[in-house]
């Protein structure tokens, strides 16, 4: 057993240190993936974040959390200054130097970590206006109608964290209280208003015409343009809303979800590439343990530069 663990470590070290390996750009879901679904701890993944950052890897959270939630979380994870994607692709934060040569009019001024925020989706106020018209036809409860205490009860967050979760820019989480059969009609009404409904680990999320995959492709394209190199992209996720992310990267890790995963399993049919084990590894453990399992798999079995360069 000990011999096997040591061999795995050597393989991972070799993959990380390889001179021909392209730079690693890792995009990861947080709750239920990098962070434990129940206590929000990175557990065994924390040590890997330190190792990967020390070797120059980029680690980009791609989450349904808000920008307000990410600020203290990035610091606690040792990722302050790394790009991020919030609210299921609704808001993206890019390094200021990426915008120096290729400015974006809609970008904010750099924050204390040198990141500029770019809103790439429908504003929350517009989403709430549509939901208000649908509230007479369907039964649901959105964050805008909840107290901080109610949000904390549903998420297990502390009060100050629940308040940050309520500070949204481009999405609205909701609890579906209507029948499962009515959900498709609700989605159709949202689609008619240029909105989307996706499922996360705890809630349904209403967004504009974006998702984690759209935002991931946008960020990867900016990376290639500004860093002038093609990275090896890895993606990690456990929910239905993570499937577009896993489809947008070179290699993915699908982590077992906690609770009802029926919608995710149903939506997998729309992403046939994720059935290919050469592209997407299915972890056996949930949360951070599965995250580490998947990372270890790809670092030990990743592409050489030649193999990588032949991919589209």
Automatic annotation (TrEMBL):
SUPFAM superfamilies: HAD-like. One of its GO terms (molecular function) is magnesium ion binding. This is HAD-IIB family hydrolase. Pfam families: Hydrolase_3. InterPro entries: HAD-like_sf, HAD-SF-IIB-MPGP, HAD-SF_hydro_IIB, HAD_sf. One of its GO terms (biological process) is mannosylglycerate biosynthetic process. Keywords: Hydrolase, Magnesium, Metal-binding. GO terms for cellular component: cytosol.
